[in-house]
Amino acid sequence: MLNRTKKEVEREEILFNFFDHVRKTGGTLIINGDLFDFYFEYKDVIPKVYAPFYYQILKLRESGVRVHYVLGNHDYWVMDFINDTLFDKVYDDDVKLKVGEKTFYITHGDGFLSWDKSYRALKKFIRSHLFIWFYRSLHPRIGYSFANWVSKKGDHYVHTKEYNKKILDEMKIQSKPFLDGGCDYFISGHYHQAKELDMKNGKLLILGDWLSFFSYGKFDGNDLRLHFWKKDEKK
Ligand SMILES: [Mn+2]
Q1: Domains and CATH numbers, the chain
Q2: Distance 154 CA to ligand 1 centre (A)
Q3: What separation in Å is there between the alpha carbon of 116 and the centre of ligand 1?
Q4: Residue 198 burial by CB count (10 A; 0-12/13-18/19+): exposed, middle or buried?
Q5: For 39-57, what is each residue's pLDDT tens digit?
Q6: Ligand 1 center–CA 66 separation, angstroms
Q7: Which of 51, 99, 105, 173 could form a disulfide with 183 if both were Cys (CB 3.0 to 4.6 A apart)?
Q8: What's the 23 CA to ligand 1 centre distance in angstroms?
Q9: How many CA within 13 A on the CB side of residue 100?
């Protein structure tokens, strides 16, 4: 079997269990980035460790659910497999969507913090044509080993209360112009906290994650709410 920890397999089961639920409800599923710990696609090569996941997405789509994907900072480097084969729609940047009367601003969220200047420079660099061309020319064994090393090094997604509050206060400031400018909802991932906040105009949603929160936003045609899969709906 593929080289994964017990925890990873358990999380995957919970996610697929959620997908079963979405297959029954129908609608559109928008995945807001960082679904993969690391995804880098080559002209003729895709990572095999996610094969069960690819299968689940195709199954979802076969049942009539549309699946959109907003690229995150762990999985930005996609090609035609992700863009054309796997998902109905892929966004390589923030996206504004109108559903009925409501306008959604959806961002993965990385690079939004005002003090994150060096990260924004790094982000620009690792998304540049030159960097991607260079990285793609490395053998996948090297590219993946390096990325896994970086990823494990930075694997501290459980933050202190103070840090989370600082992020939330900043995201309130960052989302305000969008919400004041006509968006009903500002949705961000990335920050590993699950928050639903009514703002002066509209609502700020920070989606949490599927590592410890198992949380998601659900729009019922009228309002967008944050849900917790394990607590609310797991049958
Ligand atoms: Mn992220």
Answers
A1: 6-233 (3.60.21.10)
A2: 11
A3: 13
A4: exposed
A5: 999 999 999 989 999 999 9
A6: 23
A7: 105
A8: 26
A9: 9
Single pTM value for the model: 0.92
pLDDT, tens digit, for every residue of 115-138?
999 999 999 999 999 999 999 999
Q: How far apart are CA 70 and CA 76, in angstroms?
A: 9
What are the C-alpha distances in Å from 85 to residues 49, 90, 135, 219?
17, 11, 23, 26
Centre of ligand 1 from the C-alpha of residue 209, in Å? 10
What are the respective helix, strand and coil percentages of the chain, to the nearest 5? 45, 20, 35
Q: Please give the helix or strand (H or E) that residue 137 lies within, else none.
A: helix 129-137
3-class SS of residue 159? coil
Q: Which residues of 207-217 are buried (b: 16+ CB within 10 A; e: fewer)?
A: bbbbeebbbbb
